[in-house]
Specification:
Layout lengths: L1 E3 L6 E8 L5 E2 L3 E4 L10 E7 L2 E6 L1 E3 L7 E4 L4 E2 L4 E8 L3 E2 L3 E5 L3 E6 L2 E7 L18 E5 L21 E4 L3 E3 L2 E3 L9 E12 L4 E12 L6 E13 L8 E12 L5 E3 L6 E5 L9 E5 L11 E2 L2 E6 L8 E7 L9 E4 L5 E4 L7 E3 L5 E11 L6 H9 L3 E6 L5
């Protein structure tokens, strides 16, 4: 909600939003900006209707070698096949509950207002004393919190301690003629680790963290990075007072670190993964895919989203986590590995056969995540449709001749 409005702020244009076949409910929308940009980076939107005037946060995304985008989240529900018009205002405004990034010295914590969403662990996390030291790691997300504060991820689970939080790793790999493994890090053949911070941005609509990670092969005479992978993590603001879920995106750009390709033979798991909360097990953890499959019949289902939700005890409320796979991802819809007893899942293109990442052909994959209180969200399919095919927007700027 806007806490300071400048009535005299000039209107410099308007955005028309047209929904398609699916409704839009508090979801991010963008409009492309002209090459000249906007005259001021401090902008916000105003929507006028019979119900009154609403002031809406807006935030500019600066992109290299592409048109910049202005992002906003239309408040409430935009029904299917309708239009809404928003005026663009220039001015310095103050909004409550900006999205921020805090550095704890060990992790970057992304928050909406004073509520935590996730921790990206950049510092090496030593394994607990009862586990082998090789299980220590960085470059993973944990904890992941729901809006009510429940944690839906786990770190160093005793049964499979390499499944820490949210991570991306490949299992059965060939690098320079050697078999390596970035998933099962206790094998000491390979691992994924944090390399460096690239950039960060905070604001009223989103906070974005960009980091670089190394997929390091350990099977040669000395360690060597096989991949340099950039994660762009973007947490979206949920401006309603009691949101049902947090929403964030990750774009992974995995590029060869040298002239040597990474070969990925067919295998039944490996890719973008999540380990569910501590105490979730076969009896109190459930799965649902976009095709209506469950743990019983959903393993390697070619789904465009998959949800996992659980609770540590029968008296505890449900909470969960949904991965939405973008339609541009390699081998989309990617098969989803659903474990028969453990609370983890992974989108794994390797299940469909051999493939590779080469210097000429990097792997760029995109995912959206919904962290929710309660069981699977009924609007998940709607959110995926708007993520895969963004609603249409048009921009009309005021000119001196108007």
């Amino acid at each position: 909600m806007l806490s300071a409005i400048h009535a005299a702020d000039p209107t410099i244009g308007q955005i028309t939003l047209k929904s398609g076949k699916h409704a839009i409910t508090d979801e991010p929308v963008f409009v492309l900006l002209p090459e000249t940009g906007l005259p001021d980076a401090n902008v916000y939107l105003v929507e006028k209707s019979s119900a009154g005037t609403k002031t809406i946060p807006a935030q500019i995304e600066n992109r290299k070698n592409a048109a910049n985008r202005l992002w906003f989240i239309p408040p409430g529900k935009t029904t299917a096949d309708t239009s809404r018009v928003f005026e663009i205002k220039i001015g310095q405004t103050t909004f409550e509950n900006d999205v921020s990034i805090k550095d704890s010295g060990e992790a970057f914590q992304m928050c909406i207002g004073n509520r935590r969403v996730l921790n990206y662990n950049y510092k090496h996390r030593a394994a607990p004393k009862l586990l082998h030291p090789l299980y220590g790691r960085s470059a993973h997300i944990h904890p992941i919190w729901t809006p009510s504060g429940k944690i839906v991820s786990d770190e160093f689970p005793p049964d499979h301690a390499h499944q820490s939080g949210q991570f991306l790793a490949y299992t059965n790999c060939l690098f320079e003629g050697r078999v390596t493994n970035f998933w099962e890090i206790k094998s000491n053949k390979g691992r994924v680790r944090f390399h460096k911070l690239v950039s960060q941005q905070s604001g009223p609509v989103f906070a974005e963290l960009k980091v670089k990670q190394e997929h390091v092969d350990l099977t040669g005479s000395e360690e060597k990075a096989a991949l340099l992978e950039t994660w762009t993590i973007r947490v979206w603001n949920q401006t309603v007072k009691q949101p049902k879920f947090w929403m964030y995106d990750i774009t992974s750009e995995a590029r060869c670190a040298s002239e040597s390709p990474l070969l990925l033979p067919k295998y039944h798991y490996g890719g973008m993964a999540i380990r569910g909360g501590r105490g979730w097990d076969k009896n109190n953890c459930r799965f649902l895919t976009s095709n209506g499959k469950t743990r019983k019949d959903g393993n390697h289902d070619r789904a465009h989203w998959c949800d996992i939700y659980g609770r540590p005890t029968a008296e505890t409320p449900w909470s969960g986590f949904t991965i939405l796979s973008h339609r541009t991802n390699f081998r989309h819809p990617e098969p989803v590995r659903i474990h028969p007893s453990m609370p983890y899942m992974v989108f794994t293109p390797s299940a469909l056969g051999d493939w590779k990442i080469t210097p000429e052909q990097p792997n760029i994959s995109r995912y959206r995540f919904l962290v929710h209180d309660g069981p699977t969200l009924p609007e998940t399919e709607q959110i995926w449709q708007n993520y895969a095919d963004p609603p249409q927007t048009t921009l009309q700027l005021v000119t001196e001749n108007n």
